[in-house]
Amino acid sequence: MMEYLQRRRDRVEERLEAVLDGVEPDELADEVRHVALAGGKRVRPTVTVLVCEALGGEPADAVEFAVGIELVHNASLVIDDIIDESDVRRGTPSAWAAFGHGPAIIASDGLLGEAFALFSSDERAMQAVTESMVELGEGEATELVSQPTNETEYIELARRKTGALFRAAAELGAIAADADAYTVEAFGQYAERVGVAFQMRDDVLDATADAEKLGKPAGQDAEMDRPSFVEVTDLTPAEANERARAESDAALEALATVDTDDSQATEYLQDLAEFVVVRER
């Protein structure tokens, strides 16, 4: 199992490094490499590749889009760390802590520029990513001025802040496989639900896990006076995990509506929906 996924991650990693090797000037190259090559689970690009394969495509068909969505994700993390004043990301100094606020913002812009160069050859890919970034921006802006006060508001915020990029990752995989609009939407629904479940679990981990295991500061939500899912709903961590599992189940239901060609890739997508609610970091 791990070897199967690792081969796909390695392909993404190789292309990611090649893209970043072409960044100029050297100062910007150093900054974007610090951000994008500091580790990370590469969940979104792996979803892109797996969805493409599930629909009969080859990994090579999806790797450009996979790298692109990972770059968009990393660009958003740079801004998140500035907003949160978080000086650690993936166990290393965050971009602003390493280089300062100005260079970090420029690095975020550089990552987005490289990403959109990878999407620019396909109109549907551009639309999918643009829509996800609008959602992400609206979510970030909403959170800055108004905190969620109930479960409905929280889920809408999680859908925008986390689910939107997951949705784009899956949609890009379907687009790379030249899928029809119904199939693209079904995979988008699947991934958006996975993203919401991921965020719910993230909030539980932030409240309960050890910082060393997380690879980033724990208790960040409380420190930033930002209500987590547990606080907004008054649920226990166990009950919050059950809500995350319900989102995971809805993701699996969306996935089941699609006829797929590659059962192994589909199985890994099913496993991902289940894994996000039990992960420990």
How would you characterize this protein structure?
This protein has helices at residues 2-21, 26-36, 43-54, 59-84, 95-99, 101-119, 123-145, 151-176, 181-208, 211-214, 220-223, 229-233, 237-256, 263-275, and strands at 88-89, 92-93. By secondary structure, the protein is mainly alpha-helical. It has a single domain (2-275), classed as Farnesyl Diphosphate Synthase (Orthogonal Bundle). The protein has a two-stranded antiparallel sheet with strand order 1-2. Helix 3 runs antiparallel to helix 4, helix 3 crosses helix 8 and helix 4 (59-84) runs antiparallel to helix 6 (101-119). The longest helix is centred in the last third of the chain and has 28 residues, at 181-208. The protein is globular. Its cofactor is Mg(2+).
Name the features.
281 residues, mainly alpha, Farnesyl Diphosphate Synthase, two-stranded antiparallel sheet, 14 helices, 2 strands, globular, magnesium
Summed up, what is this model?
This protein has 281 residues and is an all-alpha fold. The chain has 14 helices and two strands; from the N terminus they run ααααββαααααααααα.
Largest sheet features: 2 strands, antiparallel
Q: What would you call the quaternary organization?
A: single chain
User: Which residue ranges are poorly predicted, with pLDDT under 50 across at least 5 consecutive positions?
Assistant: none
CATH topology: Farnesyl Diphosphate Synthase
Main sheet: strand order: 1-2
| Structure summary, number of beta strands | 2
Q: Give the structural class.
A: mainly alpha
